[in-house]
Specification:
By secondary structure, the protein is of the alpha+beta class. The chain has 4 helices and 14 strands. The termini are far apart.
Length: 205
């Protein structure tokens, strides 16, 4: 899910404290701290939620619910930034991920095999900001359901601030994700993107 930046707090207030206050004032919003900046994401629309539900199916059918877990909205403690954390839309994590708790309901990146985002209004957050953040944290596979451009991105081989391999897939393709996630998972790009698109509202007479 994409996000919009919020105001930076006063110097004498921690980012975490400011983020907690925002969550209290705006229930339902997702709050993240990336690159020393607080990012806000509104509640997802129905198509966003439908896409995530559909995406879980191939992961679960591949057996990734036994020796791993497939989770929505689990906190990820980022490697750069004293208080940085993200909440990816979907993640494949090791079965013992709870042994890697850091703080703020977030877990060490070492327990994450894959993270996935479905873009919303501010899609550049997922396509740029989070690419850098996830690569910095050495997350091996990053998948983006790009609703803006109707594409599926698969990024692998993190190197410094980016991924060495970035493949973009169009409708009509079948994409098999790296076996490093623990199983063979193939995504139907057409089905994934169709589920993520909002249905057109009927025209008013």
């Amino acid at each position: 899910m994409s996000a919009a930046p919020a105001e930076r707090p006063e110097d004498d207030q921690s980012l975490r404290g400011a983020a907690d206050q925002i969550m209290e004032r705006l229930p339902g919003y997702r709050v993240e701290i990336i690159g020393g900046q607080i990012l806000l994401s509104p509640s997802p629309d129905g198509a966003h939620a439908r896409a995530l539900t559909g995406l879980m199916v191939p992961f679960l059918m591949a057996g990734l619910h036994s020796e791993a877990e497939v989770l929505q909205g689990v906190g990820l403690w980022l490697q750069k930034g004293r208080e940085d954390y993200a909440v990816p839309d979907l993640a494949v994590v090791d079965a013992d991920f709870e042994d890697h708790h850091v703080e703020n309901n977030c877990y060490d990146p070492i327990a994450f095999r894959l993270v996935l985002e479905v873009t919303s209004s501010n899609y550049q957050t997922d396509l740029r900001t989070k690419v850098t953040a996830y690569a910095n944290s050495n997350l091996p596979v990053y998948v983006i359901v790009d609703r803006k451009h109707n594409r599926l991105h698969v990024l692998t081989d993190p190197v410094a601030d980016d991924y060495d391999t970035h493949r973009i897939h169009a409708p009509g393709e079948l994409v098999t994700l790296p076996e490093s996630i623990g199983a063979e998972v193939t995504l139907d790009v057409t089905a994934v993107l169709a589920a993520a698109q909002r249905k057109q509202e009927p025209k008013q007479d």
